[in-house]
Amino acid sequence: MKNEELPVDSATRRSFLLGLAAAAALPAVPAAAAAQTSAPAASAGPAAADSHEIDSLMTIVTLRYGSYLKSEEIPMVRHALERQYTSVATLKKVPISNSDAPDCLFIPDGR
């Protein structure tokens, strides 16, 4: 099997599956809290219920990694958490069944 250098921005199955695993670590928005928001979700920022959870995640990040972060990096981390939270909400809208699985092929001789 050849070791090829992949570009930094290329998406692989492994990175996709790791992203799904990371997305599963984010807490789910309760349906009742989502139903209480009467404003449309097309606004630039997260909804009020989402912002509380993002604030909680930011608190965890600053407690664990605050000594490694510069003050100008904290808004970038918050923006990344907001993007991930939005991505998770979008992924959870797609219905899947037990028969759905990623396309992983096992080839024993490594061709």
Describe the structure.
It is built from 4 helices and no strands. By secondary structure, it is mainly α. Mean pLDDT is 73; it is low at 29-43. The protein has a domain at 47-93.
The backbone outline, from C-alpha atoms, is: flat
Largest sheet: none
Q: Structural class, from helix and strand content?
A: mainly alpha
Separation, N- and C-terminal Cα atoms? 6 Å
Low-confidence stretches: 29-43
Strand fraction = under 5%
Order of helices and strands: HHHH
Characterize this entry briefly.
With 111 residues, the chain is mainly α. It has helices at residues 13-25, 31-36, 48-65, 74-92.
Q: Which descriptors apply to this entry?
A:
111 residues, flat, 4 helices
Write the layout of secondary structure elements.
Layout lengths: L12 H13 L5 H6 L11 H18 L8 H19 L19
Helix pairs in contact: 3-4
